[in-house]
Design goal:
Length: about 140
């Protein structure tokens, strides 16, 4: 399957987001080319949608989706990070949908990598409930 979502930062969380995307992408049909990055993007490639941290300069991009930790006016918001006895979790909010991702304590994935992956999938037009179902089924 052709890669349609590109994680353009070299940080550990972006690399993990890409690995999570590879785990769940088979559940979805993605027809757009998406770039996910942090505060700035210097890619010369053409993308249909640019996904970036809320507050980044988006003036150079035609279509943008934003993500944030705790900033509720972003398109995709991660909040309520919790650590329990056997798992860690985060709540994700997008539009009129909200749900939780549960990660085993020994999971290689981080809450932030889940947020990045989710934001890319939302930008591709996948509804949040479907994303949450796919991620939770692969990680539990």
């Amino acid at each position: 399957m052709e890669n349609r979502i590109y994680f353009l930062d070299k940080s550990k969380d972006f690399e993990l987001a890409h690995k999570l995307y590879e785990l769940v992408v088979g559940e979805f049909t993605i027809n757009r080319k998406i770039a996910v990055f942090g505060k700035s993007c210097d890619s010369k490639e053409n993308f249909d949608v640019f996904v970036c941290e809320f507050g980044a300069d988006t003036s150079a991009f035609s279509e943008v989706c934003t993500y944030s930790v705790g900033q509720s006016n972003a398109d995709v918001c991660g909040f309520n990070f919790q650590k329990r006895e056997k798992s860690k979790s985060l709540d994700l909010f997008c539009g009129n949908s909200m749900g939780r991702v549960n990660l085993p304590l020994d999971s290689r994935f981080t809450e932030i990598s889940v947020l990045y992956c989710t934001a890319g999938l939302v930008a591709a037009g996948i509804p949040l409930p479907q994303i949450l179902k796919a991620i939770n089924s692969k990680l539990s």
